């Protein structure tokens, strides 16, 4: 073996802790990149291909009840590939908590085989399809029912009759949330699936009220799908069926695709930061290595080694470190990617059918392993090999330059503090570059951790503002419109009720200039002067009591129709009637998951729909301020009272349910962000541990001198621990400042994708306090081993140390 290889092996093996720190510094960056790229590639492919594999509907049309003959007629239209009728029901289910919660039931015919043709579900447990008087439940909300496979599920019908259905299967349905306007996947309630033969048992008419369609060609062309949808809606109208709206969706457009996009934007930015910080750790450690080998560099130059040869020697050493780190990082990153995919998939409702090797991810790791460590190590190597033989052999050169500046001199004059504290302060500031690089890694890691809490609270704050659109304590939905004054009178008889308002709602379609129907619009109509809604206006004004055909639109209307403005007139089709409406304002709502929403005055809408004086939706306010448990109790009282009076009840829900369900659903994003923040925090802890180990190693002789003049083990340990804690506390202060712009950037990215708006940042102290505790623990942990090793050194060993 040539001498230079002896030198490389000696550097690799003689200081194992130092070598492990370099390898860990490289491996953590490679691990992060491998995990992020592998998980994203598989996730982006699986969420699209998996959704495409279930053959989702490109077109959904809601209409009055129709039969199989009409479904077959639609299936023969040009451009239609498949057509399938579905009966969509909204009933109530008896849950484990003794309450009656809403359940959405989908009834279909399975005459052509065990699976329906469109929007197929995936069987997880039990049997599929259900037979007569059997039900299959969707797994996402099955815990809410309190039932299990084989149990009988009690279903309450609008008439008050209770039917029992045997649970025979559990499935996953990736189409939940595909009907824009229902609040999306996270607000979806319990989902059930029955055979069409069960409809009579549930007191429902025979036939279907929803039509699922797929188109043959151009499934990724929204304009082509819209043209087919227009043709289908026209056939409904010509055949005498009233449509309540249509929805078009691409075959790969999973309902939760926006959340994947949000996570992708976050993880790529975080991956870049981890690699960036990993480079700092490499620079830090290699600088210390060369600082210790100044004399060796002088000897090599003395015996004829050129600067180029010495640079090559250290570059090869870095390459060896990179190769070892690569071998460690590749398999670990693949395993972590798989675990992360399983975690994400179960929470945003897609399936990972297979976990496969991603060559591009490994290739990227190889490229980074060959480039980043070499670039990170080039600065200290070039600086270290530039010194002259005289400087190297005299021992006066230093790669990092000890701090002899003003601050360091002022510290030497400080009085009134203990000598160990003074030594810790001076040692902390001794190596400026090393301290700076360590602070950068810890600061960014801490800033990301704090930013996660700020983003989370920002989302919760926005969800709280959304709840201002639903200020009632209890929402009562009846199976059909009843006389409003009668319902109000009867509900007011329930103890604890202070106010009741009857609201109206309708589904409309934009009428385009060519006369065809456009996007579906949900219309909500509160009574004039309602105090149960506090809108977040973007421009224009809210509804006035004297308004007639005035309408306010949600922000999504500006996305789909960018030319609309306050004062413009739009044409809407509600039922069989077309009418003109004047836009008086735009308000901020929940973005793409909510669909387009419009608010109008109840009185005018009731005149247009022929339901004046009648309502099916009622908002109930309690006499006292109630928490969610109190709202649930009041809801049970209202339901029991109204059922006893003979009302057909469709749903009773507490006012805080929407806020709670939305917050829980969006927590997946902030939880994911928190996981990535812990990864960055681990990078910072490695950097701090490296700094403390290197500092102790370089001060071996100083420690020996302190031991020789009577320094105890406890004093040595306290000096090192205090130094680490001081660095951690200083990084915490910097992290609190840096977290503000980082929080704003991350919040804006997530809000734009989810809510189609920029974020109103909420800054919370909880993240800073939690990070303070973590960084102190990390600092102590990172300093314990170096402090313990320092205390174990004997005086003879340290004084003889070279």
What do these coordinates show?
- By secondary structure, the protein is α+β, with helices and mostly antiparallel strands.
- Helix content is 52%, strand content 20%.
- It has 22 helices and 20 strands.
- The strands form 2 sheets. It has a 6-stranded mixed β-barrel.
- Strand 16 and strand 17 form a beta hairpin.
- The longest helix has 43 residues, at 713-755.
The pLDDT mean sits at 81
Q: What integer value in Å does the Rg equal?
A: 34 Å
Categorize the overall geometry: elongated
Total beta strand runs: 20
Within the largest sheet, what's the order of strands? 2-3-8-5-7-6
What percentage of the residues does DSSP assign to strands (E)? Answer: 15-25%
The major beta sheet can be summarized as:
6 strands, mixed, barrel
Tally of helical segments: 22
Q: End-to-end span in angstroms?
A: 26 Å
Structural class: alpha+beta
Uncertain segments of ≥5 residues (pLDDT<50)? 399-404
**What level of helicity do the residues show?**
40-55%
Concise structural overview:
The chain is α+β, with helices and mostly antiparallel strands. The longest helix has 43 residues, at 713-755.
Task: Supply the key terms.
single chain; 802 residues; alpha+beta; 6-stranded mixed beta barrel; 22 helices; 20 strands; 52% helix
